[in-house]
């Protein structure tokens, strides 16, 4: 199988990790007119509407202005210019509709709205949102509870009491297109979802667990279906950063060896096997709505189907 084409996985800038420990790096870049900066607030990015399509504002750093309540993050370099993000405090849903407060017509937009980004913009916003959310969640030291401050140009937080450095974490989750020997796909309806919404199964990897085990465990827990234990029964297909707030979705094709479905009625309230004909008919009729075009779930489903399917959340 050739690699999956996945949104939010393209990234062309250099993260230049070796520069993070340079003393005064952020101040130096702020003084450089070539530096470009993006602003983030929680999981939202400052955007302007470009012909109806929101695109991130990548402004000269001095145009972003002074923000005493923000944290500067070093994202890397591109074409000889430094890239920064200014992470502002997350003001929650109340601030979602507010302007960006810089005299422009900019506004705040979530990543899922950003469907028309080039590779540079995509890499920048995913890195900025993921890192900003890690800072928000680690304002205090998890061991002693003391306040922490940002270090290494935004790549650590430092406990003020223990002088201990904390590093950003990513939580791996598995997501899998489970297919049986009749070439049907298993799709499930989540308990919290509106009627008609179906997707692939997914779940977090548990401590001390490998990815293939997590695939078999999640499928069994949520649907009772048994995935084979052979070397070709769980195949890696691709991954996608999903910074809501810190997931890395690791995608697989999994082969079912026992297909009886028994849902847990907790996380999952329905799971069904679809033939290609079943699925396209249900999607065209609107009886089944599939995940959005930006998701690895849809990419896994369409890889199995062989082409694009109609309709989306
Ligand atoms: Zn501490």
Automatic annotation (TrEMBL):
Annotated Nudix hydrolase domain residues: 168-296
PROSITE patterns: NUDIX, NUDIX_BOX
Cofactor: Mg(2+); Zn(2+)
Gene Ontology MF, one: metal ion binding
Protein's GO biological process: NAD+ catabolic process; NADP+ catabolic process
Gene3D superfamilies: 3.90.79.20, Nucleoside Triphosphate Pyrophosphohydrolase
PANTHER family: NAD-CAPPED RNA HYDROLASE NUDT12, NUDIX HYDROLASE, NUDC SUBFAMILY
Name listed for the protein in its UniProt record: NAD(+) diphosphatase
């Amino acid at each position: 199988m050739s690699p999956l084409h996945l949104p939010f996985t393209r990234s062309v800038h250099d993260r230049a990790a070796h520069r993070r420990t340079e003393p005064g790096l952020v101040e130096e870049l702020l003084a450089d007119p070539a530096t470009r900066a993006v602003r983030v607030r929680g999981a939202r990015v400052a955007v302007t509407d470009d012909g109806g399509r929101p695109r991130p504002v990548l402004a000269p750093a001095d145009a972003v202005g002074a923000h005493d309540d923000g944290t500067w993050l070093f994202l890397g370099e591109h074409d000889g210019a430094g890239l920064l993000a200014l992470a502002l405090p997350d003001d929650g849903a109340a601030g979602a509709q507010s302007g960006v407060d810089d005299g422009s017509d900019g506004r705040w937009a979530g990543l899922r709205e950003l469907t028309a980004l080039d590779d540079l913009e995509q890499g920048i916003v995913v890195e900025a949102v993921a890192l900003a959310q890690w800072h928000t969640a680690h304002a205090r030291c998890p061991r002693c509870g003391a306040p922490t401050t940002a270090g290494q140009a935004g790549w650590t937080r430092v406990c003020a009491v223990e002088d201990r450095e904390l590093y950003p974490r990513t939580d791996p989750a598995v997501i899998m297109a489970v297919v049986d020997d009749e070439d049907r796909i298993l799709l499930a309806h989540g308990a919290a979802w509106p009627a008609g919404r179906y997707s692939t199964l997914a779940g977090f990897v548990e401590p001390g667990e490998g990815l293939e085990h997590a695939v078999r465990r999640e499928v069994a827990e949520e649907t009772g279906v048994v995935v084979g234990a052979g070397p070709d029964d769980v195949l890696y297909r691709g991954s996608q950063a999903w910074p809501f707030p810190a997931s890395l979705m690791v995608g697989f094709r999994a082969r079912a060896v026992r297909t009886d479905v028994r849902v847990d009625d907790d996380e999952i309230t329905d799971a069904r096997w679809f033939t290609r004909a079943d699925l396209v008919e249900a999607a065209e009729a609107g009886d089944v709505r599939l995940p959005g075009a930006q998701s690895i779930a849809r990419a896994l489903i369409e890889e199995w189907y062989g082409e694009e399917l109609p309709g989306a959340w």
